């Protein structure tokens, strides 16, 4: 866990990264929130970044939930408004955490292209094979299919992603089954998502996440204050796109309503 702190903060952001990456890819975003008066708490999820254990592998999705629950607890120590921001799989982790844990002290949630369904799910034969393999050899790994050209149109970010030594390119059979289960639970029980202010920032040209699933989930959750913004022409990582300043300003507008 790492903290980016400012003098006299008005709130705290907990940022949760996506699959195959690490918190270091969110330094730009952390600095932007710092500039607007927010502390930032974030770290690497199990099996990602600099964490111990097999890379790209988890035994249970609850490992992710336990991890960010600790980050949220740390964020709440200052008694300030706490906001959660999750990208892609990190968005799914935020959703499942709020469904399963009593996180009363959360002032708002921002989800960036949350992983509630895959744009190109595996063929049925591969799906069946994965279900069998994860019971026999749960750590068996294969390519994740996440490629830089699918993430963003930003050439500089693409190059950094390709050269990133902390990038995880293979995921285990157990990891995939746990991800699939988490997506199913989120979509099946939207009523379990608490009534917290919600902003969904969805890429219009998303080649990794199924934006139809995202919109369907958004329509079903019971948050009385919820906003959905689809960014036409933007790829999956909306906070890394050439238009990311526009995306960030939109997010700031949402937060200013809740923590003026």
From TrEMBL:
Residues 8-243 form the Serine aminopeptidase S33 domain. It comes from the Bacteria. Signal peptide: none annotated. InterPro entries: AB_hydrolase_fold, Hydrolase_4, MAG_DAG_Lipase. This is Lysophospholipase. It comes from Halalkalibacter akibai (strain ATCC 43226 / DSM 21942 / CIP 109018 / JCM 9157 / 1139).
């Amino acid at each position: 866990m790492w903290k980016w702190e400012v003098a006299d903060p008005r709130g705290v952001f907990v940022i949760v990264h996506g699959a195959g990456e690490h918190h270091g890819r969110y330094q730009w975003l952390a600095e932007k929130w710092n500039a607007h008066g927010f502390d930032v708490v974030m770290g690497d999820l199990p099996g990602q970044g600099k964490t111990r254990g097999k890379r790209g592998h988890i035994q249970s999705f609850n490992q992710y939930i336990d991890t960010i629950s600790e980050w949220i607890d740390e964020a709440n120590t200052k008694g300030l408004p706490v906001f959660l921001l999750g990208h892609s799989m990190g968005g799914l982790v935020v959703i499942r955490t709020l469904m399963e844990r009593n996180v009363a002290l959360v002032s708002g949630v921002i989800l960036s292209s949350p992983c509630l369904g895959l744009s190109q799910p595996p063929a049925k034969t591969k799906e069946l094979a994965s279900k069998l393999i994860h019971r026999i050899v749960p750590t068996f790994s294969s390519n994740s299919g996440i490629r830089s050209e699918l993430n963003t149109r930003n050439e500089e970010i693409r190059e950094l992603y390709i050269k990133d030594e902390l990038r995880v390119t293979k995921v285990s059979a157990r990891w995939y089954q746990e991800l699939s289960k988490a997506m199913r639970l989120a979509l099946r029980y939207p009523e379990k998502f608490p009534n917290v202010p919600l902003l969904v920032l969805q890429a219009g040209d998303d080649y990794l996440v199924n934006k139809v699933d995202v919109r369907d989930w958004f329509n079903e959750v019971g948050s009385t204050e919820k906003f959905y913004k689809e960014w036409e022409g933007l790829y999956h990582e909306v906070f890394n796109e050439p238009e990311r300043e526009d995306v960030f300003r939109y997010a700031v507008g949402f937060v200013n309503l809740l923590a003026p």
